[in-house]
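Anyone up for a design puzzle?
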């Protein structure tokens, strides 16, 4: 849906005093009111002017390594920056997340989280030095999620310097454990420790026109095939761990999954065997399954696990033995979920993107991000882009180009103000959740 400036701002005046949420017309009017507000215009201008400084910040953050479970040094830097930007009480919680509360004028609710993630996929020792050539910046993690972290700091800076007062509270968070084996541990802890969160925004991804309102659920397994092992010639006749795994992979390869809701699988890594002339005693593989629907994910999982067990039975049957076994370990578990298109958080994001980008349509997608946990708890959540363009995510050749990068923090500002309300100007579009809901 396109933002229509023609819709009368007077509609805002008929907003019922205790409206739970705003109607689409009221949200259009609220956006008109925000865009017409001098303080908001000034803040939007400041965010654009902050572009170069923000890019420098992004590079600095990138050069502080943040491997999974080892985000501490980067977290401490981020804490210091938050404190310098005015959050004297910012702190690091028990899980390692950096947290600051930016109080609104209504005494707390609705409480909106604005976040980005600290961790990268890169292990210790990977060279994270930023390299630049012809306007393209290369470094592992430069976009994912250093851009989100820098955009978040830029947002805070501009809001604090302009004294932008929201109605609801903002909880500004840099999370740990978003990637891979971190299994969203940071955001899980956040929701465990804060029962009063009404909405959640993650800035993770580039550009601004792609918005994530579906969380792709994933289940990941490590499967370890074990057999007796032996010499390839003398002990021929024993079952092989590699052969058993091969049978399993062949069967998995032929699995069919729906295109909608998107459901996928892959055997991501394989390892095993000790030498060319030995019947393998052990082989292991890691399997990734994803879906935007929990139901489809569970269906796929059931089928896939059955195929693995069947492959072991076949390998045993082939050699008339029972010596081949498989150990199946769940190593990743992320819930699936969806935030409906008519939800205020999706509606607010749509309007903010249209107001800032004035061209490209918003596309909505499913992904696996920090928002998964909020969505699985029924808490409205979106993941929005931090601005700029890039590619080769999760690879050492990751690149970033700061094209219209300031649009990231600008989009975040308008989305936050729509949801939290601007004191004296607009009401929060985000509803206060009832206890236990
Ligand atoms: Zn990310």
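Challenge accepted. My sequence:
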């Amino acid at each position: 849906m396109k933002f229509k400036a023609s819709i009368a701002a007077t509609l805002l005046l008929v907003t019922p005093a205790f409206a739970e949420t705003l109607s689409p017309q009221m949200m259009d009017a609220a956006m008109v009111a925000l865009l017409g507000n001098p303080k908001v215009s000034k803040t939007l201008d400041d965010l654009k002017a902050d572009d170069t400084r923000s890019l420098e910040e992004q590079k600095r953050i990138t050069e502080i390594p943040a491997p999974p479970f080892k985000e501490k040094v980067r977290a401490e830097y981020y804490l210091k920056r938050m404190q310098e930007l005015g959050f004297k009480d910012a702190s690091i919680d028990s899980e390692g997340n950096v947290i600051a509360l930016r109080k609104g004028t209504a005494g707390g609710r609705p409480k909106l989280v604005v976040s980005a993630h600290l961790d990268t996929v890169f292990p210790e020792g990977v060279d994270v030095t930023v390299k630049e050539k012809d306007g393209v910046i290369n470094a592992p993690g430069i976009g994912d999620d250093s851009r989100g972290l820098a955009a978040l700091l830029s947002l805070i800076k501009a809001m604090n310097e302009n004294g932008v007062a929201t109605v609801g509270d903002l909880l500004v968070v840099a999370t740990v454990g978003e990637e891979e084996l971190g299994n969203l541990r940071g955001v899980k802890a956040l929701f465990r420790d804060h029962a009063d969160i009404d909405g959640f925004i993650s800035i993770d991804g580039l550009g601004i026109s792609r918005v994530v309102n579906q969380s792709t659920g994933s289940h990941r397994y490590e499967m370890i095939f074990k057999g007796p092992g032996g010499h390839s010639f003398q002990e021929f006749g024993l079952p092989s761990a590699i052969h058993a795994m091969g049978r399993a992979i062949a069967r998995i390869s032929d699995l069919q999954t729906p295109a909608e809701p998107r459901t996928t699988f892959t055997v991501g890594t394989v390892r095993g065997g000790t030498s060319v002339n030995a019947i393998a005693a052990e082989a292991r593989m890691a399997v990734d399954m994803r879906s935007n629907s929990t139901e489809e994910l569970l269906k796929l999982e059931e089928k896939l696990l059955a195929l693995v067990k069947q492959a072991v039975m076949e390998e045993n049957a082939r050699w008339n033995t029972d010596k081949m076994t498989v150990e199946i370990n769940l190593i990743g578990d992320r819930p699936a979920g969806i935030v409906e298109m008519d939800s205020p958080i999706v509606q607010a994001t749509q309007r903010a993107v249209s107001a800032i980008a004035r061209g490209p349509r918003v596309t909505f997608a499913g992904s696996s991000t920090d928002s998964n946990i909020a969505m699985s708890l029924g808490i409205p959540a979106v993941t929005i882009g931090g601005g700029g363009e890039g590619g080769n995510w999760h690879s050492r050749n990751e690149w970033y180009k700061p094209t219209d990068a300031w649009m990231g923090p600008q989009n975040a500002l308008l989305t936050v103000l729509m949801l939290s309300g601007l004191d004296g100007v607009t009401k929060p579009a985000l509803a206060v959740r009832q206890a236990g809901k």
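A detail worth pointing out: The longest helix spans residues 294-318.
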